[in-house]
Specification:
Blueprint lengths: L4 E2 L5 H7 L2 E7 L4 H16 L4 E6 L4 H6 L7 E6 L2 E7 L4 H13 L2 H15 L2
Parallel strand pairs: 1-3, 2-3
Antiparallel strand pairs: 2-4, 4-5
Length: 125
Amino acid sequence: MSSTVELTKENFDQLVSENEFVLIDFWASWCGPCRQFAPVYEKAAEENPDLVFGKVDTEAQPELASAFGISSIPTLMIVRDQVAVFSQPGALPAPVLADLIGQARELDMDEVRKGIADQEGQTQQ
């Protein structure tokens, strides 16, 4: 039984809006590094049952991949409180993924939102 959720354009918005912390793995079946990363991602999902681990098959869901500008896979994205706080291509080793999850858990989302608002204010001037 998989601890990850298959994300589609039909369920993506609802899943991200209803969950405070979502990790998203953009992948494809033909991608060797994606297949290597899959067991690492599954294990992290099992070790963090309070978080939502989603997978986007970029072949089946090209609109989602395009909407997020995914140009290389695997790409891991972390969304907290509907804000993408991390996005990076490449298969991560288990200790790096665990550290990344820990860092994302510790983020002060009020500070993150304030930083985004400050950046948006500067770009509008």
